[in-house]
Specification:
Largest sheet of chain A: 7 strands, mixed
Strand order of the largest sheet of chain B: 2-1-3
Largest sheet of chain B: 3 strands, antiparallel
Distance between the termini of chain A: 40 Å
Number of helices of chain B: 5
Helix content of chain B: 25-40%
Number of strands of chain A: 7
Order of helices and strands of chain B: HEHEHHEH
Oligomer: heterodimer
Strand order of the largest sheet of chain A: 2-3-4-1-5-6-7
Strand content of chain B: 5-15%
Largest interface: A-B, 52 and 46 residues
Mean pLDDT of chain B: 77
Shape of chain B: elongated
Mean pLDDT of chain A: 82
Helix content of chain A: 25-40%
C-alpha cells in the first residue's frame, strides 16, 4: 500500500494545449520555441472517415492515414506539466482532434497569412467543440501579407476569438500567445464559477 | 513483495526477440538494435495490440502521466517491459510512444494493458471536468516565468 501511495504522489498533473496549423505554418517551430525538450514526434495511424469539405473531388471513403504529431513539454512546477501538441490543420486530419480536444485547455491555430485556407477546418472544429481558441498569425520575417482584420474576415470568426500576430521562432512571442489563450480559458472558468 | 530486475533481456543477455521476429529488420551490426516491434517495416501496429484499437472512455490520452509501479509483475512481454522501463519517473503516453517508436494508438492500448496487469500506475483524470480558475492561473504564472 505504501508503494501505491508513493507512486501516486510522484505523478504530476498533465495539461495540454493544441497547436494546429497547416504544413509550414510554423506550428512545430512554435512548439520547439517554448518546449523544454526538443520536440518529439509520434505517429498516429488510424482508419477514419474523411470529414468536411476539404477536397470535394475526393470520395469520402474510409482511409488509413499515418500522421506525425510533434509535441513539446513545459514544466510549470513540480506537480504540473503542460504539453503542447502540434497537429495538422486540414480537415482530413480532423480525426486527431477528437482525442486531443478532450480535456485540453484550448487550441492555438497557427495561420500562415499567405495560406489562410489551410486552417479553416481547424478553426471551425475547435470553435464548435467549444474550446478556448486563439488565431495566431505567424509573421514570417516580421511581416504579414494581410492585416489581422482581413484574416478575421477571411476565417469568418467571431469577435470573441482573439486574432494575434506572433513570431513562431520567438519563445516570448509564443509564450504571450499561449497567455492570450489562457486568458480566454480563464474568462470561461470564471464564467462557470459565477 | 517488490519485483525488481524486470528487464527486456533474454537468457543470453541480448535483447529478447521472439524467434518469429528474427530478421524482421533488426540490424545486428548496430550497437543498440532498435526493438523489432518499433520497426515500421516489421510488425504492423495491430499485431502488437492483437487487433485492438484505443477504446474511448479509458481516460488514457496522449498527455496522460504514467509511472512504473514498484510492485509490478516480474515477467512481461518485451514490448510491454520496454514501456515499463521508460517510465521509472512519470512520463506521458506520447513521450513513451515517441521514445519507443510505437504508434500513439498502440502505446495507449499497451499502457492500458499494463495498468490492468498492475505494472503501471496511470494517472487518469476526468477529462470532462472543466479546469478550475486556480489551475489556469497556475499555468499562466508558470508561463510568465519563461523569458
Amino acid at each position: 500500500m505504501d508503494y501505491e501511495r508513493s507512486v501516486e504522489s510522484r505523478v504530476p498533473q498533465a495539461l495540454k494545449i493544441i497547436i494546429a496549423g497547416g504544413f509550414g505554418a510554423g506550428k512545430t517551430t512554435a512548439v520547439g520555441a517554448i518546449s523544454e525538450i526538443a520536440p518529439l514526434t509520434t505517429e498516429a495511424e488510424m482508419t477514419t472517415l474523411s470529414i468536411g469539405v476539404d477536397d470535394p473531388g475526393q470520395d469520402h471513403t474510409k482511409v488509413t492515414t499515418t500522421v506525425a504529431m510533434d509535441f513539446g513539454r513545459v514544466t510549470i512546477d513540480e506537480s504540473l506539466k503542460l504539453y503542447l501538441f502540434g497537429t495538422p490543420g486540414q480537415a482530413r486530419f480532423g480525426f486527431m482532434w477528437d482525442d486531443l480536444a478532450v480535456g485540453a485547455l484550448g487550441a492555438v491555430v497557427v495561420v500562415d497569412s499567405r495560406r489562410v485556407d489551410d486552417c479553416h477546418a481547424a478553426v471551425d472544429y475547435f470553435e464548435r467543440a467549444g474550446l478556448p481558441l486563439v488565431i495566431a498569425v505567424n509573421a514570417f520575417h516580421g511581416r504579414l501579407s494581410h492585416d489581422l482584420t482581413e484574416i478575421r474576415w477571411a476565417l469568418s470568426i467571431g469577435d470573441d476569438v482573439p486574432v494575434v500576430a506572433f513570431d513562431a521562432r520567438e519563445r516570448t512571442s509564443v509564450r504571450d500567445t499561449l497567455l492570450v489563450l489562457l486568458e480566454q480559458a480563464l474568462a470561461r472558468a470564471y464564467g462557470r464559477v459565477a | 513483495m517488490t519485483a525488481e530486475g524486470t528487464d527486456a533481456t533474454g537468457p543470453d543477455g541480448g535483447p529478447s526477440i521472439r524467434p518469429f521476429l528474427d530478421g524482421a529488420g533488426v540490424s545486428p551490426a548496430r550497437p543498440v538494435p532498435p526493438p523489432a516491434w518499433a520497426d515500421p517495416t516489421g510488425l504492423r501496429p495491430y499485431v502488437l495490440t492483437a487487433g485492438r484499437v484505443p477504446a474511448s472512455g479509458t481516460g488514457i490520452g496522449p498527455e496522460t502521466q504514467v509511472v512504473a509501479r514498484d510492485d509490478r509483475p516480474a515477467i512481461l512481454a518485451p514490448e510491454l517491459s520496454a514501456i515499463v522501463e521508460t517510465c521509472p519517473t512519470p512520463l506521458s503516453v506520447a513521450e513513451i510512444s515517441a521514445r519507443l517508436g510505437l504508434h500513439l494508438g498502440v502505446a495507449r492500448v499497451l499502457v492500458g494493458d499494463l495498468r490492468a496487469a498492475g505494472a503501471l500506475h496511470v494517472e487518469t483524470t476526468d477529462p470532462t471536468r472543466p479546469h478550475t480558475p486556480e489551475t489556469i492561473l497556475r499555468v499562466m504564472r508558470g508561463l510568465r516565468a519563461i523569458s
